[in-house]
Amino acid sequence: MPLFGTAPGFWWREPGLLSRALTLPSLAYGAVSRRNLERGTRVRVPLPVVCVGNLTVGGGGKTPTALALGRAALAIGRRPGFLSRGHGGQAKAALLVDSARHGADLVGDEPLLLADLAPTVVAKDRAAGAALLDQAGCDLIVMDDGFQSARLRFDLALLVVDARRGLGNGALLPAGPLRAPLDTQLAHADALLVVGEGPRGDALGAGLAESGLPVHRARLAAPNAAEFRGRRCLAFAGIADPGKFFASLRDAGTEIVVARSFPDHHTLSESEARELLSEADSLGLDLVTTAKDRARFGRSAGGPMRGLNRLARVLEVELEWAEPGAAEALLSEALERFERG
Fold first, then answer.
1. Kindly report the CA angle at 151 between 149 and 154, in degrees rounded to 5?
2. What DSSP letter does each residue of 131-170 carry, written as one string?
């Protein structure tokens, strides 16, 4: 995440002193990001590409959306593969993820989740990554992020926004959470997905629907929510919007006695893991975290990380489309565009 380890709180409030103080660097960032989107050289690859991106930095529901599209692709008989930059991973060259051998330190946390469903490649060079998926026998690429970098020509771009947060203060990085000027992003998008409920997302969706951009709705559901009903827990998360995770736990009927938030993609130190284990044990609480956090310590060999590996339970999250067949329709549109060239 540019300039910040985690999203500053002022991004999600009305514009104030801090955001105004960052106007000049925000204008510079906006000029570069606009040029990338409008003039970037997009490489054409031999497979259809569906790009899932965020209008803002983090927390929109991008990875659950990519997984939902992957499941829909499998349901219609396609062989999807995921392409990710592998944020937080150290892999230098394009790499086909093997979750039995690779850890989050090498490939990032999100690719490990994607790889549980379909072949997944991490690559800074998106064209090289697409070639690996082609070699792996995939016939459709779902690209998790990569919208603003404009490195690949995609057949359909779906932008995801969280309904509760919306566009925050509406300013560009670093003054706000927007990853590029809004008008430029929307000009290169084919559809918007509003995830969850909230007045900011509702207003954005209504405005864009009037402009003619297709707007879809979805929510994040927890298929194993019943396992947490009535439990008392210490909940911890290192994701872009920990508050969303805590809200999902409360919706499941869980009493969160202690909530611990860490920066997005944060790798716990041994001392942090030890503190979590000790506090949960002293208060008689269950340890609960997210699938992304679990992926980061899931292959730890010993010490307190091994304890978290054994004791921390995961609240699973899946994206549910409001309109039946919406995912399949988006995939069909992408395939038709690819065939037309």
1. 105
2. HHHHHTT-SEEEEES-TTTT-B--SEEEEEEETTTTTTTS
In tens digits, what is the pLDDT along the chain, a chain of 341 residues?
Answer: 444 456 788 999 998 999 999 999 999 999 999 999 999 889 999 999 999 999 999 778 999 999 999 999 999 999 999 999 998 889 999 999 999 899 999 999 999 999 999 999 999 999 999 999 999 999 999 999 889 987 899 999 999 999 999 999 999 999 999 999 999 999 999 999 999 999 898 888 888 888 889 999 999 999 999 999 999 999 999 998 999 999 999 999 999 999 999 999 898 999 999 999 999 999 999 999 999 999 988 666 578 888 898 999 999 999 999 999 999 999 999 999 999 98
Distance CA 91, CA 114 (A): 16
Q: What is the pTM of this model?
A: 0.93
Which are the contacts of 181, defined by CB distance < 8 A and separation ≥ 6? 30, 33, 34, 172
